[in-house]
Amino acid sequence: MFKREEKNKKSENKKGILQSKWMFGIIAIILIAIFCVAMTPVTLQNDTFYTIKIGEQITKTGIDMQDHFSWHEDLEYTYPHWLYDLITYEIYSNFGMDGIYITTCILAAILGISLYMVNTKITKNQIISFILTVLVIYVLRDYIAARAQLVTFILFVWIIYSIEMFLKSRKIRYAVGLIVISTLIANLHVAVWPFIFVLFLPYIAEYILSILAEIVIYRKLKISILKLEISILTKLGKNVDKKVELEKELQDIIAKNQKVRIKREEDLKNPYKIKLTKNSNVKWLILVMVICAFTGLLTPLGDTPYTYLYKTMQGNTTQNINEHLPMTIVDETEALSAIVLILAILTFTKTKIKLSDLFMIGGLCYLMLASKRQITMFCIIGVLVVNKMICALIELYTKNGLERTFKWATTKLAYIVMIGIMLGLSYHFYEPKQNDKYIDASDYPVQACDYILENIDLTTARFYNEYNYGSYLIYRGIPVFIDSRADLYAPEFSGKKDDIFMDFINTSSIGTFYEDTFKKYDITHVITYKNSKVNMIITETKDPNYKKLYDDKYFVVYERLNV
Questions:
Q1: Beta strand pairing status for 555-560 and 525-529?
Q2: Which contiguous run of DSSP H or E holds residue 353?
């Protein structure tokens, strides 16, 4: 009787906990989605403009590997995110800028929800996963935009989930998921496709080191040699004494290995700091990685997935674009705080870390320091490692700490507090953007383009423009000197001897006299920021070779005389 009542009570408790988890999960997902929408900027970034036009061009001419938007002749273009461009154009053509903004909000929400779900599934802790997800979205606020990277952020989250689940269960659906995601990234954003394989490496490295450790510790190489020698002597039927001696040596090693194995198994259960495990499923993961390497062929881009990153690293573009430059860590408070937190947990507590996780977080730190844009990968992928460490820390130093916290977090008062805080934060970040427009006239020459289209013959004009708003000129149908497709203008991609990108960099910084560059490219018109160095020199020197055709608060248009 008492046993039945106790069993019923346990069943009810289990059911109650399950219901609490469902309720917390639903509320967390809704709040994360609202927060992500609030963090989504209204004003479009420059890449979105050329994305729309390239998508439109694909619908007309297909992927012909040629540029259609610069007045430079016969530039080769690799269409590095052709599928995203095409999808973006279809959304724009049917729903306009509203459609692009709403899509970006939806993708941001999917990213946040994906981070929460994957962290929860792997660490089994909803509260820490919720808090860390909100923090990650906050750190990524400047990277939430209508760009291909937002889609690939989501896919990278699910790559980690698929790898972790495959290693745990070796179920085929996770392997298929990895192959499908690899194919999608190769078509959506080929520049980051090689990064997929970086994510496999920590798991493979741990597996290889575990094998090497066994070879050394258990003297497997020595055992193999002894067995070979004994086998040879047996076949030859000679040196019986030598054979007996070798067999005795072999038995001694095997006996010692048994003792070492018992001791090592005890040590592995409770390592000092780093947990080294040998997961036999990794060898199948390696096979999946090899298959994924061939998905680069499943694109209309030829060998671009295999050559794009190499060509980019060979050129000068990454050394002159702000987001590609090395991180100045004192300027990145969030990244510095995360690194300090990780080091503090590992140094001052008894918390242990898997070797693969240590490799992962160490590699991500290196990439982030080498290129500030990789803070995105540090956040998206590294948050999972941090989550594991925090959960391990709480379990180590508290008794039923996580269970008690969860019980408190699922009370009505806790829900009211959580909802109030999240809605307050969401409004705080959304409120300044209420009156923002999709196109900021201080960043993009809206009125200047109106003037150009009404008064200048674009069939003969050759405009010099600047990098940051070149894509908007493309959007308005004005052929450009340069735009934010930086690689297009580098000789590694363009197929030209001239380095158009570096000519722009040198001209805009006055490292090269602007008139020399304009002569080289037969420039007929100039559109530039009013506060640009080129305009300041033309204005201060009253250069007679430049006739001002138009100016407003932010931009000025010149005609170059005596061309």
A1: antiparallel
A2: strand 353-354
Per-residue tokens: 116: 């929460």
Contact yes or no for 103/146 (Cβ under 8 A): yes
CB 470 within 8 A of CB 447: no
Structure tokens, 382: 């590294």
Question: Collapsing DSSP states into helix, strand and coil, what is residue 545?
Answer: coil
Among residues 341, 382, 338, the alpha carbon closest in space to that of 358 is found at 382
Is there a contact between 114 and 154 (Cβ–Cβ < 8 Å)? yes
Distance CA 412, CA 19 (A): 14
| pTM summary value | 0.89
Q: What angle do CA 356, 357, 359 make, to 5 degrees?
A: 65
Query: What is the rounded distance in angstroms from the CA atom of residue 315 to the CA atom of residue 311?
Result: 6
Q: If residue 521 lies in a helix (H) or strand (E), which one and from where to where?
A: none
Residue type, 5: E
Kind and range of the H or E element at 557? strand 555-560
Distance CA 392, CA 166 (A): 22
- What would the DSSP string read from start to end of 241-301? HHHHHHHHHHHHHHHHHHHHHHHHHHHHHS-SSEE----TTHHHHHHHHHHHHGGGGSSTT
Token code pair at residue 46: 């420059």
Q: How far is 261 from 218, CA to CA, in rounded Å? A: 8
Q: What residues have CB less than 8 Å from 134, skipping those under 6 apart?
A: 32, 35, 422, 425
Least confident of 28-37, 115-124, 398-407: 398-407
Parallel, antiparallel, or unpaired for β 353-354 and 274-275? parallel
Q: How far is CA 321 from CA 325, 351, 492, in A?
A: 7, 40, 16
Predicted confidence (pLDDT) per residue in 526-550, tens digit: 999 999 999 999 999 999 999 999 9
Cα distance between residue 49 and residue 538, in whole Å: 29
Instruction: Say if residues 275 and 264 touch (Cβ distance below 8 Å).
Output: no
